[in-house]
Design a protein that fits this description.
mainly beta; five-stranded antiparallel sheet; 8 strands
Length: 110
């Protein structure tokens, strides 16, 4: 093909002065951490009072109440994975679950 015969396109002189490329503004909001409520049970489904419960990545911990219940403010948002560790005496359990409102841990003897 003869390139000299290609149609000529007129480009305005001020083309580069205008915002030629589309742009957008993205506003990100801070993820709100989930408060995790849970219960620690033994293998017989009985509540364990006084178990230590920790979120290792968050450096947060608490102790279960008389009914084996605990509440911890996580460092992750709803749906993100969180590791929860619970132990009492020679029984321990670590689970990794999506962060949500309610978690149940069953302690097993080592």
């Amino acid at each position: 093909k003869d390139l000299n015969r290609a149609p000529k396109i007129a480009i305005p002189d001020n083309l580069l002065e205008r915002d030629y490329y589309p742009s957008m503004e993205i506003k990100l909001s801070k993820l709100v951490p989930v408060t995790i409520h849970g219960q620690v049970l033994d293998e017989n489904q009985k509540a364990i009072a006084g178990a230590d419960v920790t979120l290792p990545e968050c450096s947060k911990s608490t102790t279960t109440d008389l009914h084996g219940m605990f509440v911890l403010e996580s460092c992750v948002a709803d749906g993100q994975l969180v590791r929860i560790h619970a132990e009492k005496g020679k029984s321990a359990e670590t689970i990794t679950v999506p962060a949500r409102d309610s978690v149940e841990l069953v302690l097993r003897r080592d």
